[in-house]
Amino acid sequence: MLIKSKSGHLFELPTDEEEIAINAAIASDSDTYELSDAQFSELRPVGRPVAEVTKERITIRLSREVTDYFRATGKGWQTRIDDILLEYIASRQ
Known about the structure:
This protein is mostly helical. The protein has one domain (about 5-90). About 45% of the residues lie in helices and about 5% in strands. A two-stranded antiparallel ribbon has the order 1-2. A hairpin with a 5-residue loop joins strand 1 and strand 2 (about 10). The protein starts with a strand and ends with a helix. The mean pLDDT is about 90.
């Protein structure tokens, strides 16, 4: 059976017979095991946590001098540009 993910990718689910064979192979492998429900509930999510304040992805054209300057300040340079723009907005209100 084919199922479609949210992103549109198609995945073929194993048949009942294939599922039985997969589970038998897992059970026979001494290096692997299935997690219990209690163990599974203790796992933490993978990836970044969802931010309380999200930002909008845009494309903006800046002068080479601006991007060179901020990139030279290291990681987080785009956030620093955002902070400066927020300060500018606050000063205008």
